[in-house]
Structures are given as structure tokens and as C-alpha cells.
Fold Large ribosomal subunit protein uL15.
Amino acid sequence: MNILSHLKPIVSKSAKRRGRGIGSGVGGHTTGRGAKGDKVRGSTKLTFDGTKIKKSWIKRLPFLRGKHRTNALNKFQTITLSQIEKVYKSGDTVTLKNIFEKFPRLDARMYKLGVKILSTGTLQKKLTFQNIKMTESATKKVNAAGGKIEG
């Protein structure tokens, strides 16, 4: 059986290459762009506004300083020692996993960034903390209550 006789015809034509000389199919001189002017010569800058009188769109934007979105995303969530005192019993181990279980208000998407424990309030229970960030004053209060900090 002859394969060449059963080939389907090609429907789509290849695009004409503009501005590549007279033989390219679309003229060599102006190539469909018209005669003179800005639209012939190329694209304008993104900051170009057209006149000197009105304020350019870049200068109309608010003058913001600092890092915004990225700075806000990198902050971890905080819990106080008084909140931990209410939830845990004496002798319990406090880990990231059970913190997110016992505190439903914490955003689960922030699990990777973790939680930092602040020293607000008092702690009388002996607790063991595993791989959790805390402030210096919070570590002093945990050690004073007889707790341990691992990792």
C-alpha cells in the first residue's frame, strides 16, 4: 500500500515573515506599517506618557517604602505562656504538631514557619518543649517552673 497517496493535506499555512526583503511575501520597504511616525519605528518605553503636562502614570503611584508582602509572609505566629498554661497539663510535651491541634485559631498554612512562644503571663506547670522558638524571657520562665527545652 502506498503511504504517499493517503497523506492528509496540510491545512495551516506558515506565517509570512515580514520585513525580510521583497521576495519574502510581504514587501521590503514599509512592510504594512505605513509611512512615517512612532508606530513605524518601534515600540515606546513603558514609562512614556505622551505629553509633558500631565503627570506620568509612574509618578501617580503611591510612594511606598520597605518590603511589603514578603516581609509580612515570613512572620511566624505567636502564643503566650498563659495560653499554654490553660491548655496543657503538668508533665506534657509541647510540640509543633500538638500546638496546631490544641489551638485551632492558628493558621495551618503557617505550619512550616512555626510558632514562637512569648513570655506574657506565668507558667507553674512542668512542661517539655521540643523544637519550638521562644523568647529569652520565656525560656527563663520555663526553666524556673522546672520545665525542659529540647532542640
Summary: The helical segments are 38-41, 57-60, 69-73, 81-87, 96-102, 136-144. The chain has six helices and six strands.
